[in-house]
Design goal:
Length: about 475
């Protein structure tokens, strides 16, 4: 008996694996995004900040003051009791000269005891340290040395005075024996402990050689613990009036303001002030003479000072030069604009032809990018160069493309797309530009702009 049963191959149903499908979709999406990211030109963003820039006019000048040097009338060991570059009155104790050194030895021993510092003295020193910490700028490390010198001078003054008071009886006895001599200020002034031979120099004595600092030498009297008779021991600056003499070129002379007043910055400490100035010509050289009435005491220890003449300093919004670009605009007379529409915005009456060939008038509100007393600047987004404008309450017409003008500006990208903003440049150097703040159609503080204005166009979306 034969078996007539027929074997039929079983076909498995086609099942779609949803996981694989999702994976393929995600993979394609990722590949597309990576490709888009790689092939798309990315726009770097710059945040507008407040800034100040000035022309680099840095000079080193010679200081002239009303100075009087005082000399020792005997030999001996010298001790100081007044901090340098501080004010003293007539009759104040400045220093002492010890002929045989006995008093000086006792002074040295007594001043080594820092426990003699009172709470008031410690507060004074702590206040000085605190002021230094608050004003310290790591870019000006020389301030550390100036602070150290000032602190050493303060400690020397306090400790020496305390030491002299602690051996008062012995010092009085030595003074009666004519071996110890106290030196008192003979007039009011600011005490300084160096001499350099320029104390009697006047403007008429100025020579080009005086500005050669390689030949300059001064005697620092604080370093001379042992002196001889007729050695300089201190000097007094007797007036707050002082001058800075600067050799300048003829070009600088021509650029100086006519009001005889200059603003300057001292590079030593960053302080700014105003000074009256005069110009002096001698032996074929030009000299700028800055006359000041204050701040002399801050630089009393210096003969030369570095200053920056702020001939053209501007403050405003600081942007990189790379962000600046140019764009051409149509210029339309102000009288062709009229307020209208739902928002009462300024707009134009444009004469156009409809599909039936009839002339119609449309009210268009183009974006205004800049304005003068006579013109508004608009682009071609809402109008074309061939459009004819109707003047309100008149039969006069104006073709949009009749006149054009170019504006300099940047692309503002606050809203995620590029919007041209006109800028009013106040000052510019090789890297940055200062633009005016508060302009009607310009940028504002903290706006985001395209770092490279040449790589972006109006209304372009920011990737």
């Amino acid at each position: 008996m034969s078996d007539n049963r027929k074997i039929v191959r079983y076909r498995k149903p086609f099942n779609i694996n949803i996981g694989i499908v999702i994976f393929i979709i995600i993979f394609i999406y990722l590949v597309f995004n990576v490709y888009t990211y790689v092939t798309t030109e990315h726009i770097s963003v710059y945040e507008v900040e407040q800034g100040t820039m000035a022309e680099n006019n840095i000079y080193r000048g010679l200081i002239l003051r009303d100075e009087q040097v005082y000399y020792a009338d005997r030999s001996g060991t010298l001790n100081y009791y007044v901090k340098e570059a501080s004010k003293v009155g007539c009759g104040n104790l400045i220093c002492s000269v010890d002929e045989n050194g006995d008093v000086s030895k006792r002074l040295s021993e007594a001043s080594a005891d820092v426990s003699m510092l009172s709470a008031e003295h410690l507060d004074e020193i702590a206040a000085g340290i605190s002021d230094f910490q608050l004003s310290y700028d790591s870019k000006n490390f020389y301030q550390v040395y100036a602070f150290k010198e000032d602190l050493d001078s303060t400690l020397e003054e306090i400790l020496n005075l305390n030491a002299l008071n602690s051996i008062q009886d012995y010092a009085d006895g030595a003074e009666q024996g004519n071996s110890f001599h106290r030196v008192y200020a003979k007039e009011d002034g600011v005490v300084v402990y160096y001499a350099d031979g320029y104390e009697d120099v006047t403007l008429d004595d100025i020579t080009a050689e005086m500005f050669d600092e390689s030949a300059y030498a001064k005697i620092n009297t604080r370093n001379n613990h042992t002196i001889e008779a007729k050695d300089p021991i201190y000097k007094l600056v007797r007036s707050e009036m002082w001058s800075i003499v600067i050799p300048v070129s003829g070009e600088t002379v021509n650029r100086l303001a006519a009001d005889n007043v200059l603003r300057l910055r001292f590079l030593q400490d960053g302080k700014t002030t105003y000074a009256n100035y005069t110009l002096k010509e001698k032996d074929g050289a030009n000299y700028l003479v800055l006359s000041l009435r204050s701040a002399m005491i801050r630089y009393a220890k210096e003969r030369y000072v570095e200053v920056e003449l702020l001939l053209n300093e501007e403050t405003g919004l600081k942007i990189p030069n790379s962000a600046i670009t140019e764009k051409e605009f149509y210029t339309v007379p102000v009288e062709y604009f009229v307020k209208g529409g739902d928002s009462n915005q300024k707009g134009l009456l444009v004469e156009r032809t409809d599909s039936d060939g009839k002339k119609i008038t449309e009210f268009v509100t183009p974006t205004i990018y800049y304005e003068t007393e006579e013109l508004y600047y608009i682009d071609g987004e809402d109008v074309s160069g061939d459009d004819v404008l109707l003047k309100p309450d008149s039969s006069a017409t104006y073709t949009v493309g009749r006149n054009t003008a170019v504006l300099r500006g940047v692309y503002n990208i606050n809203k995620g797309y590029a919007v041209f903003k006109q800028i009013d440049i106040l000052y510019q150097n090789e890297e940055y530009t200062i633009v005016r703040t508060g302009t009607t159609y310009g940028i504002a503080l903290y706006d985001h702009i395209a770092l490279d204005g040449t790589k972006i166009h109006e209304n372009e979306l920011i990737q």
